[in-house]
Amino acid sequence: MNNPDLHHMAHGHVPGYLPGADGSDPLFTVMAVFTIVLIMGIGALYFTLHALPEKMAHTDNHMQFQLIGILSVMALFTHNNLFWVAAIVIAAFRMPDFLTPIQSIAKSLKRLEPGTIGPAEMPAPAVPDAVASHSPVSAQTEEG
Fold this sequence. Notes:
Layout: H1 26-50, H2 52-60, H3 65-78, H4 81-92, H5 99-112, H6 129-133, H7 136-143
């Protein structure tokens, strides 16, 4: 320990994280890089999380895709979590299709309504050829 370059109170071993005599600071450099990478990672996670309802709606080809997109963007810019929760709920659950059965019922009722279908529009009953040749009407016309 009789090195002339060291101070008489200095230890023989200096930790590596302390700044060197040339002014380089390895701990500061590592922490600066770590902080920048961490901030970029959190930002990417934040944007990915906000895009989750849109991705769900796009994969399911959801009817309300535009509404989900608008709610997601509003949540992103206003930092109001209620918009994001509403977007994820709408994207996660499919609304039942009430319109198709109601339209089918309306078409059926329209067909059953008296006076709307004329005799020209009435479909003729399908009669097989074998039954038509043995019918009493065709037998009377052949005899008479």
